[in-house]
Amino acid sequence: STFGQSAPSDTAKVEKKANFGPLFKNDDVIKLRIVTNIKALQKDRGASPSNHWAELYYARKKKGDLKIPIKLKVRGNFRKASKNCIFPPLLLDLPQKKDKNSIFERQNRLKLVTHCQSEEYIFNEYLVYRMYNLITNYSFRARIAQVTYEDSAGLQKPVISYAFLLEDEDDMAKRNKAKDYNIKQIPMTRIDSLQMATVAVFEYMIGNTDWSVPYLHNIKLLAPK
């Protein structure tokens, strides 16, 4: 939802000028491989998870796999707990300097929504994001990936599962000529009425009651620059 902005705007000119990279410009499933110490990552589910060094590989059609050194961090609230998810959601921190021909060009931090307990929910949640993209530009882009998780210590067998990548919050804001408004206790009456209605009706349509504007729970607020 947005704060003080009356209607969704056409972001095509902004995107062309800013160039947010190729990652979210098509819908093909990308194949990724993440190599890290799986045991150490899985155990790090406390209040302040640490960064874990890892290698990210993605398959290119003609040039073979490209390796990118990254940092991984467990993220989330409910899904971070081991009693709720066998495999936690992750935050990928990519280096500033990358191959210009990389699909991750101009990407720095990306959320990876993992399989948790079952792949079925990955596709359901991905489609929710894509539906909301059709309704408003004030929405996060998503890209499906087939990910192979390999243990660098060699103690666990590789796990192959679907996941999806989420657009960085700053990029989503820039596309809409806005900035992140990370302040709690903003009443819903202060939010632009059209955007607030759009969010509320969409959440009702998908059967989601787990969100709150005043507490910024599963909600991001934007304000015009």
Keywords:
225 residues, alpha+beta, two-stranded antiparallel ribbon, 5 helices, disordered N terminus
Would you mind describing this structure in some detail?
This protein is α+β, with helices and mostly antiparallel strands. It contains five helices and nine strands, in the order αβαββββαββαβαβ. A seven-stranded mixed β-barrel has the order 1-2-3-4-5-7-6. Strands 8-9 form a two-stranded antiparallel sheet. The protein starts with 11 loop residues before the first helix and ends with a strand. The model is unreliable at 1-14 (pLDDT under 50).
Question: What class, by secondary structure content?
Answer: alpha+beta
User: End-to-end span in angstroms?
Assistant: 15 Å
Helicity range: 10-25%
Low-confidence stretches: 1-14
Oligomeric organization of the protein chains: single chain
Strand fraction equals: 15-25%
Number of helices: 5
What layout of secondary structure does this protein have?
Elements: H1 12-18, E1 30-36, H2 38-43, E2 52-58, E3 66-74, E4 90-93, E5 109-113, H3 119-135, E6 142-151, E7 159-166, H4 169-175, E8 178-180, H5 193-205, E9 222-224
Parallel strand pairs: 1-6
Antiparallel strand pairs: 1-2, 2-3, 3-4, 4-5, 5-7, 6-7, 8-9
Give a quick precis of the structure.
The chain is an alpha+beta fold and 225 residues long. It has five helices and nine strands, in the order H-E-H-E-E-E-E-H-E-E-H-E-H-E.
